[in-house]
Amino acid sequence: MVAPTLISVDVSKPAWEQDPEKPLHNRWHPDIPAVASVKEGEVFKVECIDWTGGQIKNDDSADDVKGVDLSQVHYLSGPIAVETAEPGDLLKVEILDLGALETWGFTGTFHKDNGGGFLTDHYPEATKACWDFEGVYCKSRHIPGVKFAGLIHPGLIGTAPSKELLDMWNAREKQLQDELGTGKQKTLCSCLATRPLACLPEPAGALLGKLGHFKHGAKHASWAAVAAEAARTVPGRENGGNCDIKNLSRGCAVYFPVFVPGANLSMGDMHFSQGDGEVSFCGAIEMSGWLELKCTVIKGGMKLLPAVGPSPLSVNPLFEIGPLEPRYSEYLVFEGICVDERGEQHFLDATLAYKRAVLNCIKYLAQFGYTEEQIYLLLSCCPCEGRLSGIVDVPNAVATLAVPLAIFDRDVRPSGTALEMLAAGVRVETTQAKESDVTAAAIPYDAKLDRCVPCAP
Amino acid sequence: MVAPTLISVDVSKPAWEQDPEKPLHNRWHPDIPAVASVKEGEVFKVECIDWTGGQIKNDDSADDVKGVDLSQVHYLSGPIAVETAEPGDLLKVEILDLGALETWGFTGTFHKDNGGGFLTDHYPEATKACWDFEGVYCKSRHIPGVKFAGLIHPGLIGTAPSKELLDMWNAREKQLQDELGTGKQKTLCSCLATRPLACLPEPAGALLGKLGHFKHGAKHASWAAVAAEAARTVPGRENGGNCDIKNLSRGCAVYFPVFVPGANLSMGDMHFSQGDGEVSFCGAIEMSGWLELKCTVIKGGMKLLPAVGPSPLSVNPLFEIGPLEPRYSEYLVFEGICVDERGEQHFLDATLAYKRAVLNCIKYLAQFGYTEEQIYLLLSCCPCEGRLSGIVDVPNAVATLAVPLAIFDRDVRPSGTALEMLAAGVRVETTQAKESDVTAAAIPYDAKLDRCVPCAP
Amino acid sequence: MVAPTLISVDVSKPAWEQDPEKPLHNRWHPDIPAVASVKEGEVFKVECIDWTGGQIKNDDSADDVKGVDLSQVHYLSGPIAVETAEPGDLLKVEILDLGALETWGFTGTFHKDNGGGFLTDHYPEATKACWDFEGVYCKSRHIPGVKFAGLIHPGLIGTAPSKELLDMWNAREKQLQDELGTGKQKTLCSCLATRPLACLPEPAGALLGKLGHFKHGAKHASWAAVAAEAARTVPGRENGGNCDIKNLSRGCAVYFPVFVPGANLSMGDMHFSQGDGEVSFCGAIEMSGWLELKCTVIKGGMKLLPAVGPSPLSVNPLFEIGPLEPRYSEYLVFEGICVDERGEQHFLDATLAYKRAVLNCIKYLAQFGYTEEQIYLLLSCCPCEGRLSGIVDVPNAVATLAVPLAIFDRDVRPSGTALEMLAAGVRVETTQAKESDVTAAAIPYDAKLDRCVPCAP
Amino acid sequence: MVAPTLISVDVSKPAWEQDPEKPLHNRWHPDIPAVASVKEGEVFKVECIDWTGGQIKNDDSADDVKGVDLSQVHYLSGPIAVETAEPGDLLKVEILDLGALETWGFTGTFHKDNGGGFLTDHYPEATKACWDFEGVYCKSRHIPGVKFAGLIHPGLIGTAPSKELLDMWNAREKQLQDELGTGKQKTLCSCLATRPLACLPEPAGALLGKLGHFKHGAKHASWAAVAAEAARTVPGRENGGNCDIKNLSRGCAVYFPVFVPGANLSMGDMHFSQGDGEVSFCGAIEMSGWLELKCTVIKGGMKLLPAVGPSPLSVNPLFEIGPLEPRYSEYLVFEGICVDERGEQHFLDATLAYKRAVLNCIKYLAQFGYTEEQIYLLLSCCPCEGRLSGIVDVPNAVATLAVPLAIFDRDVRPSGTALEMLAAGVRVETTQAKESDVTAAAIPYDAKLDRCVPCAP
After folding, report:
1. Closest C-alpha among D36, D3, D4 to residue D19
2. Using DSSP, how many helices (H) and how many strands (E) does chain A show?
3. Subunit contact B2:C134, Cβ cutoff 8 A
4. Residue D398 pLDDT > 90
5. d(CA C346, CA D116)
6. DSSP D456
7. What is the pTM of this model?
8. Which of A72, A82, B231, C81 has a Cα at 20 to 30 A from B109?
């Protein structure tokens, strides 16, 4: 808590007006210069603004979520150079502590035409829930009757890619996009509505740290070239990045591959809490926050990471978790199999199985006095666990979603009493934050929703 | 432990020569008669033979796995009628205790031409590991240096389908098969080698309880008709079934939809332990075992289960887990994203992401003195957890695989010491059970392996 | 589960009519011959009758508890010789599994004139609760509204003492008894009513295995001499013995000092569940049960155990616990300090502090619809934890008692609602098993109760 | 983290020179005025200096521990008035978060002539270990080879006593002191060396908040009278106070009785980590720290707390713990029985049983390369658990001490390897902080040490 702060932010200022010596960035590129450097073993603190840079407000309308500018995300603090790190090393980053910079956070679902989410075809409108933090706990006026402890973590943390790795990313993601509509398209496009399919490099909204940014003022000579090829931060990749793994929390250690001299570690997208999958996409309890870190280098250690693929760069970080995670003792668990909402059979498709488990859970829990949108938001941010339970029993993958019973102020187990409650039509008194032009009517599954539409230019 | 035994088995006899009053079955069909009935609240014990009916032996050759007759699986005990259960009810089944009937079990990987598995394209040969049970713990002479406590559970437990539900299953699974090669194929066929794509009804090998069986003797008049349409037991479906959920263990309660009068509960495929996903397919530590159960009926309770799909039958069971699961405190966690081994980008594909996490783990742990086949077997049966960590960050799904450190007798965390061990080429002294015609050479990824081949007639 | 049974019992027969080849015993003495022997590494099963030898019945009267013959306890299975064990070795006993032999057990409080208990001065009458086992869970018709999973363990397990150690025991326990009333008496006698103060050797009731027993028939020539000096089994001592540690459960390993050739391991007093302290003395959920064990010898390992005291024999066993204990996540915790019920201050007395914590808990929970006797019984046998929280802050020791909230079917946390319930005088409908001559009136604290009375001759 | 700070401290200043508007206090008395007030439901932060007020330094000598002025302890922040709280209410204090104000803390053992400790008769000299915090973890240069996560908590938190309660305290503690040497002494004085027996009111060193302090300057007219009867803060009592319960940590809620208008809550003695019992007395990892709190009042709720004793004030707080505690999975557990180091038998004495368990553990672990003093310090501050395992098996109480294996960088389980290490005399390279006049020689048990000496005037 009292380690020196390496990078500070001011949450009252725009992302592009933070510390001019240590500006933020929102793209991955090897040429974005480090803004600070640390020695091995040094303990330091890094502050981060929320991933949208303050676009979402603590109020009761979801219009800000609906109109969010996604070209700007995610705002990251860094890169931080670790003095002795060289390509081929393994960088051990110990997450010694984490915290919030404000006493509130938000969870939202994007509108289907601006971001979407795992269940956009069921819940196409933007919604929002604001959460108040009370120390380690949080509550929301928009989803009454639940309370849980946060498992604070960075949704996004990673090392900088080398040029070779960046080129790999851009090539494969473009190919995915290009295949759309050609008959070669892979997998889930026909049944999982998400827009866009991938997020290719996009100079609009690019903030490139010391190279300058999209808003105003002088840019470095290389700005345009870098912005044109810098990777978006949306997906997790070989460098870690936006993995949204809720278990990267207090006391854990992450081992990152090092692709560039100094490793150039960046991080952001702080979450007060998240459910496995972060299903609503906007998604965890998003907040501004801080991390306390220590870095160590295992020289030549990248060879400990297995390369599975055509390139020696085809690796992924690994991490250790310790005894500090909250441990609930009682869960209600929902199953899903890969048969879609139209009744069609898919083949060992864990994504669809999880979609089904999440839907089963939403519709089940909504019976206890909630709207489906409230449960969708809740599952995105509460400490629920998504499991790949069965992945070989053709043709059905089985996924499970386990929700801790202790987060509810009522008994949500199936019982005769629950049936009576259902018959009586009990509802929770609540205000929900929705788009201003949305009626309160239930929104049915939209089987005709356009799917896998490429990014608008 | 001393509850009355409702159904007994004799592990020294073939599956078709068990108690003639309470014969086993290996297909799902509403017309398979119940062999026993219980009252609500009654505590009773059910014994089950292993899923293959004794085809696999406790020896050091994997030839039995290679040649296994999969048309016979899974051998189930039941159906058990619950006296007051009617269609539309919810059947609560409390799993009060479980145990083994013998002191050993097995884990195997099927040959690519007979069963396959999650990683068949990497590990196409049959392998086997036999496990010795010492009370709650197990060890294997084929994978030395690991020991863990079992989390005994039925891989397969479910209620009987109604005719309407059975028809739904057969229609959709046939459609999946039929689409293969038409350009409409939906799925992972292009990147996930598994044979077959689905298991359609197949009279060969059918054991239909009191209706008779494939082996010999008199069959009921309806045998041929039922065998021609009875569903295979391979996948989990709306009735539960072969969900292979490792958490259905001591002290848990499962809520099943009831589709036929009496519910007609069946179960089998007992596992001493399993990892999430059961990746090697043959897959957990398979054994003969027993369960102690209690059934309760929530009248009309099926309406508590959400129907998501075109039919009101499109539901899934849910279950509760309590404080009895083993809780490890330290894990090493592997990440995977949905980029395949050829470097191609897929779209939010959790199956591929998990495949990648499993591969990363196999190749990482193999460095500590194991063959990759040994780790593949181990991950299929040890208490590892597979998580759907991120499912919205286009285009990459992120899956994680968490392995408890306490199961190893050595420190498998990344470190300088691990690097030195790698350099020194340390290997565990071990005998592995493989097919008799396989050389010890490492088997490379076979990118050309035929994929998604339909069942042979 | 299917390991060979080394020692069997028949719960329908008296303790002195069990297997004549492997008779039971209820005293500690080096000359009691081993009834069986095992090799290192062998897995074997041992059955045990309940500690009273069937004196307590599954009915609704506590008269059997009131009149119990305590000279007979505890009936043990063994001694079992471990082939290579020699004095000076350390015997590792792995508790591989455990189970019940019947589907019920009992918890009682002894009458103040026959056994007593931790709170005899508050609850002087005999009471009893019978528990029904449903697999891993138990419930009692005498204490409705609670349900919990058992943590089966042997209340008593230990190695045989050498003659030298036996003499130490007898000398020191006699001295304690002799000091009573002399002004030298140690510590708690003035404030903790228990009868007797110690249990010195007593031929009445002695069952000495192959040397013969008190009931009838031929006794070995040495019977009288051995019975006259054989130690009673009531307290835990240097050899382990009746330590009543609830954590000696599934998957744990105990390291015992070896005092005689073969170690001569004995065990009994099986508990389905127990709370820390086993406060009611009769005390856990007592039952007949079985253990599955494996023994290993660490040659010369007794020197690893520290001898603290005048003799090199002044050691205690140690043990390991693993990840298999049930883990509750929410507890209500009661504090106690060492001020007695008369308001007198004691000095760092953890026994009194714990007595106060237990009393606080009893009186608190009784407000939720129970009698105090019911809660006293419950705390003796449910999985509650007793902690020595502070032991240095003169003059008060602080002890805490943590009760898992999940065992209750109602919310027992302090709240305005709880206050209303208290005001309304809500009570649970229940039958309690008490002595036949006891009225239902509340029994006040008896400050004049005789304390520390020596054994009757 | 960002809640408003109600009371601030400056760790660079003496205790008596903190915020003059909100001065600290180190005595309990109803007339010490509140320094701040809060509304129900308000979230606020309180900072506290370490309990000694900065007397102990981060260096390698234990001379500061040896010469510490104990008349000054414990320095508390508060009293804080809760607006609506009245005598007879129950005050719910939620501990929402906690943290350190500096990056180091200390553990010490007091010299036998100045403070003593649980094992003063074995380890009479002053020692010290300084700990460095790295986020949630800590390490000590004085005890190498161990690392663990903190479970930060206030060693001391409580409400103000009423005059009636204060008088009860003073009377009973004086009586204890007065009985010493009269033959009526109750307790452990004959076997547990501690000085003093109790800490009676003592104007020297008294800091009385707004009434003034011992150091200098103007005192309130009532200062002398209040100082003469204000209770010392050493023991836990009916108001909570110095209970040193390590589980009062993140996310827990404590229910305090209210004795005076406003409740007047005070707190201090922040611990980064503590073992059950805090055996070395100086004892946890002591530090300056902060708490984030929320208070709620249950009107009339004190009647929910059972009064056990002659006065309706004879109550104790209770508390709830949730899913946030670190959960280790593997422990090594030491047993102790109430036979003292001279071999004398005591009667159900849990204090002695725990003393023996702690000694057994110290001497066992010291074999792995430590001095006994290092382990004594470690057990006082690491997350070990002290249990009252058996409290009824006359004459022996059984206490257990469970130490998590994961805090050590080596395997400390009993084994042949451990024996070899012992034979080889392996020692850890370490500097220990001891008194400057102490030799490194092992210090034997001092059976003749004066015991229970009253406070010097």
Report:
1. D36
2. 6, 21
3. no
4. yes
5. 18
6. P
7. 0.92
8. B231
Q: Which of C123, C297, A87, C236 is nearest to D399 (CA)?
A: C236
pLDDT tens digits for range B319-328: 998 888 888 8
**Residues of chain C found within 8 Å of residue D333, distances taken between Cβ atoms:** 245, 247, 318-321
How many beta-carbon contacts under 8 Å exist across A and D? 90
Q: What are the tens digits of pLDDT across the range D250-261? A: 999 999 999 999
One-letter amino acid for residue C310 of the chain:
P
The pLDDT value recorded for residue D448 is 60
Q: What is the pLDDT of residue C407?
A: 95
Tell which residue, A199, A174, A159, has the closest CA to residue B345.
A174
Strand-pairing partners, residue C292, are C45, C97
pLDDT band at B430 (very low <50, low <70, confident <90, very high): low
Cα dihedral value A404, A410, A413, A417, nearest 10: 180
How far, in Å, CA of A287 to CA of A291, rounded?
A: 13
Q: How many residues does chain B have?
A: 457
Rounded to an integer, what distance in angstroms lies between the CA atom of residue D256 and that of residue D68? 31
Task: Confirm if C297 and C178 have CB atoms less than 8 A apart.
Answer: no
Q: Identify the weakest region by mean pLDDT among A146-160, A371-385, C283-297, C426-440.
A: C426-440
- Min mean pLDDT across A282-286, A393-397, C224-228, C358-362 is at A393-397
Q: What pLDDT does C68 receive? A: 94
Residues of B in contact with A344 (CB under 8 A): 172, 175-176, 186
Closest C-alpha to A115, from A74, A148, A82: A74
Domains of chain C with CATH codes: 5-320 (2.60.120.580), 331-433 (no CATH)
Nearest to A236 among B190, B396, B418 (CB): B396
Please state the ipTM of this predicted complex.
0.91
- Farthest-apart Cα atoms in chain B, separation: 70
CA distances from A374 to A61, A379, A407, B391, C211 (A): 14, 9, 14, 19, 73
Cα separation, D111 vs D63, in Å, equals: 10
Amino acid at D434: K
Cα distances (Å, whole numbers) of residue C41 to B141, C93, D329: 15, 10, 25
Q: Which chains touch B (3 or more CB pairs under 8 A)?
A: A, C, D
For residue A47, count CB atoms less than 10 angstroms from its CB and return exposed for 0-12, middle for 13-18, buried for 19 or more: buried
State residue D451's pLDDT score. Answer: 53
User: d(Cα D65, Cα C395) in Å, to the nearest integer?
Assistant: 21
SS3 B188: helix
d(CA D359, CA B2): 43
Whether B152 and B250 have beta carbons less than 8 Å apart is answered as yes
Spans of chain A, pLDDT less than 50: 1, 189, 438-444, 454-457
Q: Which residue out of D329, D407, D411 would a mutagenesis test of the B interface target, given it has the greatest number of B Cβ atoms within 10 Å?
A: D329
Length of chain D, in residues? 457
Cβ B208 vs Cβ B226: under 8 Å = yes
3-class SS of residue A281:
strand
> Reduced to 3 DSSP states, what percent helix, strand and coil does chain B have, rounded to the nearest 5?
20, 30, 55
More confident residue, A441 or B300: B300
Q: What is the pLDDT of residues D324-335, one digit of tens each?
A: 888 888 999 999
Question: Among A1-5, B414-418, C160-164, where is mean pLDDT lowest?
Answer: A1-5
Residue D394 token pair = 């006359």
Distance CA D428, CA D264 (A): 48
In terms of C-beta density within 10 A (0-12 exposed, 13-18 middle, 19 or more buried), how is residue C420 classed? Answer: exposed
On whether any CB of chain A is under 8 Å from the CB of B384, the answer is no
B357 pLDDT higher than 90: yes
Please, which residues bridge with residue A175 across strands? none
Q: Are strands A153-159 and A240-241 parallel, antiparallel or unpaired?
A: antiparallel
Locate C23 and state its tokens.
């008779």
User: Long-range contacts of range D411-415, CB-CB < 8 Å, 24 or more positions apart?
Assistant: D412/D332, D412/D365, D412/D368, D413/C320, D413/D332, D414/C90, D414/C92, D414/C255, D414/C298, D414/C301, D414/C304, D414/C318, D415/C298
